[in-house]
């Protein structure tokens, strides 16, 4: 039976997120403290420093040698079922289309596990639940985000080939008439573009480095140097507040403009 203490734990873990949300809303609507250029600066700080260090911090906490493969398998199956369902909807429904299929897949499967999932599941199930969320986030970034990027790039190429202009070319410079003969090469170019985008994403390096450290530290029982751990934690602790604050400020400033 769920007691009042359990409810309080969940509320205590989620309430700080709403504090950041309210402050972000008030800073724009009531106090007029932030403008679009301020939002861009917060976004740059969040993207290149705070979020990667936050991801690195949580990734290093997982033990890759004791991952719950049943849970990861169930997670993969659920996402595969959603992909099949969305594909059938896009093919059979008159309202179905490829762009909405990408959006539906992203919203239904690639939720923000570290921002909301860690405090919520941690409060409900303790360290065991928190560890499962971190495992899911690692799989999400190393597998599903790559698939999503490929879907977006495929859509971009598809749009360029469907333009009415006769001089429209694909990623390799081929026209629409000879596009059918260059599919294998186009796929390689598509993979290359996705790889370059991942190479420019600081979060990719954070996830890879965090997983590498987790493998090494759990294999040889190593501890992260205090000076490094402190440097990571001081930025990581800012992430949830900065992420929610930026999302609120950006949404309101975009709507007002």
Automatic annotation (TrEMBL):
MF annotations from Gene Ontology: auxin efflux transmembrane transporter activity
InterPro entries per UniProt: Auxin_Efflux_Carrier (IPR051107), Mem_transp_PIN-like (IPR004776)
Membrane topology term: Multi-pass membrane protein
Pfam name, any one: Mem_trans
Transmembrane segments: 7-28, 71-90, 102-126, 132-152
Highest taxon in the source lineage: Eukaryota
Gene Ontology annotations for the cellular component aspect, listed alphabetically: endoplasmic reticulum; plasma membrane
UniProt GO BP: auxin polar transport; auxin-activated signaling pathway
Keyword annotations of the record: Auxin signaling pathway, Membrane, Transmembrane, Transmembrane helix, Transport
Compartments it resides in: Membrane
Family listed: Belongs to the auxin efflux carrier (TC 2.A.69.1) family.
Stated name of the protein: Auxin efflux carrier component
Organism, scientific name: Lactuca virosa
């Amino acid at each position: 039976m769920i007691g009042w203490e359990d409810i309080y734990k969940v509320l205590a873990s989620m309430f700080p997120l709403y504090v950041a949300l309210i402050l972000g809303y008030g800073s724009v609507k009531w106090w007029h403290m932030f403008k679009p250029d301020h939002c861009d600066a917060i976004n740059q700080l969040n993207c290149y420093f705070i979020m990667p260090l936050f991801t690195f911090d949580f990734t290093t906490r997982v033990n890759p040698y004791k991952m719950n493969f049943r849970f990861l398998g169930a997670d993969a199956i659920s996402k595969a079922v959603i992909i099949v369902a969305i594909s059938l909807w896009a093919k059979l429904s008159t309202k179905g289309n490829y762009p909405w299929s990408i959006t539906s897949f992203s919203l239904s499967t690639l939720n923000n596990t570290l921002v909301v999932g860690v405090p919520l599941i941690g409060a409900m199930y303790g360290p065991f639940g928190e560890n499962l969320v971190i495992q899911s986030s690692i799989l999400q970034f190393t597998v599903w985000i790559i698939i999503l990027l490929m879907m977006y790039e495929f859509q971009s190429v598809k749009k360029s080939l469907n333009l009415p202009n006769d001089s429209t070319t694909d990623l390799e410079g081929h026209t629409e008439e000879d596009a059918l003969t260059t599919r294998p090469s186009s796929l390689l170019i598509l993979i290359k573009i996705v790889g370059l985008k991942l190479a420019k994403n600081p979060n990719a390096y954070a996830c890879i480095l965090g997983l590498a450290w987790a493998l090494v530290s759990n294999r040889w029982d190593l501890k992260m140097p205090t000076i490094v751990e402190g440097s990571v934690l001081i930025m990581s602790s800012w992430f949830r507040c900065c992420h929610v604050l930026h999302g609120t400020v950006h949404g309101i400033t975009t709507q007002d403009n």
